[in-house]
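User: Can you predict the 3D structure of Zn-dependent protease? Sequence below.
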Amino acid sequence: MGFIVYFALIILIPLFAQMKVKNAYKKYSQVPSSSGMRGAEVARRILDDNGLYNVKVEETHGMLTDHYDPRSKVIRLSSQNYHGTSIAGAAVAAHEVGHAIQDDNSYAPLRFRHALVPVANLGSNFSWILILAGIFAQISGLILLGIVFMAAAVLFQLVTLPVEFNASNRAMDQVVSLGIIRNDEERETKKVLDAAALTYVAAALVAVLELVRLVLIYTGMTNEE
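Assistant: Sure. Here are the predicted structure tokens for Zn-dependent protease:
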């Protein structure tokens, strides 16, 4: 029964987070901002105000595919947010600019997350191979090695939290100080940003739960030995 509850949780937690962000985005993508600025204009305005003239703003395909590319120094906004004039589009654009500002300021958690990317990718790709091989072959050493790899991926998820929350805080500060949103629009903007942040919280929580479960499996095997 415990395993059923556990697996239900690791499935339902991300689904709940995704539902929240999609509902918030869908709702506020229908609400026009008082400034009437397109997402691309919001991003450009904040970038220029912070002296980031070298960072480009480009359109990308897909829904909620918005991101900042630190290697190319480009903010890519999904078509709806790039061209749209909604509260949601302004919030998303400002959030991505928040990452560009972090990059320019050498924000420590962002730098640490970038450094973790190769290790986290390695952990995500190989941890389960080692763990499953260790479980089937009853070799605790393989499980431990897999856990070490997975711990790196979990650390990446945890470091992502302050990076994302900080980017959202920067976004709110910028859209308010530049007059991109009015006082009565702050609550709606914050709802969009909070819903997006919830997906990262859910991912980190599930990752930690999985790591704890595997540690318990490993300790159980070593106790039997």
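The chain has a mean pLDDT of 90. The chain has one domain: 2-224.
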